[in-house]
Amino acid sequence: MADLKALIFDVDGTLANTEEAHRQAFNYSFKQAGLDWEWDVELYTKLLKVTGGKERIRHYVEEFLKQEIEQDKVVALHLAKNERYQSVVLDKQLPLRPGIKRIIEQARAQNMTIAIATTTSPGNVNNLVKACFGEDALDWFAIIAEGEMVPIKKPKPDVYEYVLEHLNISANECIALEDSYNGVKAATCINIPTLITLNNYTAEDDFTGAMIVLDSLGDEQEPCNILASEVDTKIDGMVDLDTLIEMHKAYTK
């Protein structure tokens, strides 16, 4: 049995339901560039299997349009997309998902380490954290690791290995909070206990290996539901830090 020492959060779809804002920002950047590309919800759900915005653009062009695209154009489109997305974030149009604020506040109150492991761009992460928690909130996290820091993005485990090394903890001393197949694969392939809170874009993902799958962390207005679990646990509508500690204890014993 290992003690729970850290919570490691994914960002997009986990801290906040950001994917629809990302989709609309991609479409905005395409229109601004004079392109007739349009990523509807069905197509974007497929494209989310590819982690990283630049990688997603290239994959779309090569696999769906059967064309080639210069890297400079990919970078320019992605930059325009991020600028549009960040304007939405800074306007505080993306509220946190149920329970996220509660868990982070409880972890800070009990001096538990919190960290971020994501594939999104640094500016997107930083602005979302500041918009949702306040200007000083970046300092709350022991490390904010994003995709550009590691050779290969999720579903490879590089970003999680980077965080574990930085925190000097083992895989069974933390919980990863994720929302997608790529996330659960990245964490569980190095044996990190993983809690999934799925969303509309990931509801059909394969979450094999997850410690538990929920529809959210829950709050008084929107109680959570257990969709699958590898631990014998009872949740009365809301997950709190004590719930996570007991869940981790049961899973790692």
Span of the ends, CA to CA: 4 Å
DSSP strand tally: 7
Count of domain modules: 2
Rg is 18 Å
Mean pLDDT comes to 95
Salient structural properties:
253 residues; alpha/beta; Rossmann fold; DNA polymerase, domain 1; 2 domains; seven-stranded mixed beta sheet; 9 helices; 7 strands; 11% strand
What would you say this structure looks like, in words?
The chain is of the alpha/beta class and 253 residues long. The protein has 2 domains: 6-17 and 95-252, HAD superfamily/HAD-like (Rossmann fold); 19-90, Orthogonal Bundle (DNA polymerase, domain 1), CATH 1.10.150. 42% of the residues lie in helices and 11% in strands. It has 9 helices and 7 strands, in the order βαααααβαβαβαβββα. Strands 3-2-1-4-5-6-7 form a 7-stranded mixed beta sheet. The chain is globular and about 55 Å long. The N and C termini lie close together (4 Å). 40% of the residues are buried.
